[in-house]
Amino acid sequence: MATSLSPRGGALSDGKWALWAFGIVIIGLLSVRINDLFAGFIPGIDDMMRLQQVRDLLAGQSWFVVDQSRLLTPEGGEMHWSRLPDLFLAGFIFLAQPVIGQTAAEALAMGLWPLILLAFAMVFLVMIMRRLGLSLVGQVAGLFFFGTSAAIYNFWPGRIDHHGFVVVLVLAGLTAVLSKQMTARSGIVLALSITAALTIALEGLPYVAGLIAIMGLFWIVRGHQEGVRLAAFGLALMVFASLFFALDAPGIGDRRMVCDAYGTSHWAGLTVGGVLLALLGVFGGWFDTWQKRLLAGAVAGGVTVALFIWVNPACLGDPYAAVSDTVRETWLVRVDEAKPLSNLLQTELDRVIWVYGVLGTAGFASIFMVLSAKPELRLARIGCILLFVLAIVATVWQVRGQSFSHVFAAIGAGWLVGVLFDNWRAKRGPGPLLIMAAAAILMSPLTWRALGDEFGVAPLDPDTAVSRSMDCVQAVNFQEMATRTDMRVHTPIDLGISVLARTSNQVFVGPYHRNVKGIERANLILIGSPDEAQQRLLDLGATHFAYCRGLGETNDYGERWPNGFAAQLNRDEIPEWLEPGDGLSETEGVVRLYRILPN
User: Residues 514-536: pLDDT tens digits?
Assistant: First the structure.
């Protein structure tokens, strides 16, 4: 009996085992990286900061306070992060620590949490592809393209920053809004998903707006049959927006009047918008044509946007308006995830080919997916491609958008491979087979990654600057420093959080935009003269200075300011007012600790 390749059916004999097997393979391959966590490896600075935030919570810091007290910036180590991503990590560590110890409990929590999120992401992605009418082969291909894309990095063991969590919530929201049952339950799940995504990080704002627009579009086209779901969605939006506003950090108060996190303006927009959507759902029978529903929806949207602007007009301005020219020149241009396409074209052609090549080919596939859709699937596919377009725009603005755009790209790419497979299966012969194979190769992120390596820059080798920069943040560099206490250690920006998370000492700088004054004075120390650096360090009250020759940040300072303090240290010219305090002799790729002597 032939195996069915239909996207429907409940038995394993219909081929769904391939989806389960492929998902398990992806999780299994990534789970090997948990071993690195037990060796002290932490993938990124934000992951270190998240771990430290969890430690502070377990040590008794208030749920509503996420500021870092050992980050001695003029702003007081101010942070704007949500507590929601801390829940699993803190709970697991709290339960496991008495059994396996703190270090092992932290490593295991950091390994499991991203993999759990990955499992949910793949489940939601498969449900989305199924609701869009992709064949089983298309679903398997979509999973493969997702698992080999830039988006998968957010789910590596150790990646406990918020990005993966927000991706999962957006996928959950899309899964709910594509539900064919149009029940109140799917409206409630949609509201929960988008409000949770927004309270965790404003990077989800375009997709929150997109999901609300899709819900509105479905109501405009389908009419009052969407009324129950729209009303439930609006009421749940109001409830969940208020709950997260009150119960997540920083709680209700003046600190909510912000634009870089879930603030008063966002809460007001979601609450009032939810009320208006609920009213449209209840009284939608009054609007008996799509033109009337479009006008009513436009009025509701206009009122919501106007309220958002009225509550906090500053949210329409430049999000980096408070950043000084010095900080822009020394730090902001180096923030990897915030680089626009225009910057990458000048500096990282290999990355441009990889990231945007995938989006280009998948974009064409997604257009054909919509154009060829059956009438009962066309509206759902239009909604999906709306989110994809938003994600592409976000990725052009800041490359961090790849976390979402590469996920949506996998859907259109998977659809095309599935259609061409069905075509080959029906016609047989080498021609259709070659077309399918060529499309699969063209759609694959692996292809664009290889092309980037070939036509962009040379692949990394152990002697590259990036490899040496990674050596600087290895756990072994901070073992001896961790045995010391009560030090006030000044560092380059990219080392500050490593010292914070791996020792109990205080630091003066971290790469967070709410601490721009701290970033500015830290950079002035490194790009100014050595004599100015000494005085500035003493004025701060710093007792020690940590430095690593080969760190990408300080290499850049040395090249751009050849007479500065960083350039001198890169030449191993250590001033007399820095006294070695670690007993080491190596300098390349090794964190050196110095005592700061008085004038």
Answer: 999 999 999 999 999 999 999 99
